[in-house]
Amino acid sequence: MKRPVIGVIGNSYRIENRFSVQMVGEANLRAVAEVANALPLMFAGIPEVSDISALLGVVDGIVLTGARANVHPTRFGVEPHVRHEPYDNARDAVALALCEACVDLGVPIFGICRGLQEMNVAFGGSLHPEIREIPGRINHRMPRLDSGEIHPDPAVVFADRHRVHLTPDGIFARLIGRDTIAVNSLHGQGIDHPGRRVVIEGIADDGTIEAIRIADAPGFALGVQWHAEYDPQLNPINRALFQAFGAAVVAHQNSN
User: Fold this and answer.
1) Separation between Cα atoms, residue 180 and residue 204, nearest integer Å
2) In this model, does residue 219 exceed pLDDT 90?
C-alpha cells in the first residue's frame, strides 16, 4: 500500500529581514513520519500558492501546526492591537478555509496550538489574545529567564506545565486511556467563545480550553492547545494522538 501523505501547513517568516520564506518546525515533520507513519508534505500558507481543492486531491490528511503569529482578530470581529502582533493573514486565509473543507469532505485534520485556535475561528468562535490576563488564569506562555529571554533548554520549555481534565468517555479520554493528563504550555492566545460545532473535551485547571473536536465531523477533526508534536516518540499521550491521526489518515486513504 502506498504510504499516506499528510500536508503540514507552512508559516510566513522573513530571513535576514529580506527574504520571505515558508517554514515548518522539524518536530511536526518527524511526528508525522515517525509516529503517524505517513509522508509529511509541507504546503504554503499562502492562498495564492496553495489551491485547497488541488491540495486535498493530493494529501490524505492535514496538520495545522503551532506558530509564532496570532490569528488576526478581525477574523472573529475584534480590533487588532500592536501588542498582539505578529499576525499571518495569509496563513489565516488558507487554514480557516481548510478547516471547513476538511470537515466537509471527511479529510482527517489535526490542529495543534494555533491550529486548535484556527479550528475554533473557522466555525465561528472567538479567541482571547492573552489568556493570562483573564482573572484566575495562569501564564500559559513558554518559560523565560529572569532576563526576559526565552529559556534556552527545550526540555524546560516543553516540560509539562499543568493538568488537563478530559471529558470522561470522550474521544480524547478513550484515545489516551485516562481522564486527566499533564501537558506543556507555549501559548498566549486561546479560545474565548467556542464556535458552532466545537465540542470542548479538555480543560486546564484554570479553565483554559485545551482539547476540542468538531461535532458530527465524518473524519478525524481534533485540536489540542498544547504542542503534541514535541515528543510523541516518547510521550504516551502525544503518541496516542498521532497514532490515532495516522490510523484515520490510512482509513481515509483506503476509502478513496
Assistant:
1) 10
2) yes
Per-residue pLDDT reduced to its tens digit, 102-138: 999 999 999 999 999 999 999 999 999 888 887 888 7
User: Domain 5-255 belongs to what topology?
Assistant: Rossmann fold (3.40.50)
Tell me which residues are annotated as active site: 113, 227, 229
- 119: nearest Cα among 210, 221, 31: 221
Listed by start position, the domains of the chain span: 5-255
Residue 228 dihedral angles phi and psi, to the nearest 5°: -70, -20
Over its C-alpha atoms, the chain yields an Rg (Å, rounded) of 17
For residue 58, list its beta bridge partners. Answer: none
pLDDT digits (tens, 9 = 90+) for 156-183: 777 788 899 999 999 999 999 999 999 9
pLDDT tens string 41-96: 999 999 999 999 999 999 999 999 998 889 999 999 888 888 878 889 999 999 99
Helix axis angle for 89-105 and 114-122, nearest 10°, is 70
Residues 35, 91 contacting (CB under 8 angstroms): no
Secondary structure of residue 28 in the 3-state scheme: helix
Residues in the chain: 256
HEC string of 153-222?
Answer: CHHHHCCCCEEEEECCCCHHHHHHCCCEEEECCCCCCEECCCCCCEEEEEEECCCCEEEEEECCCCCCEE
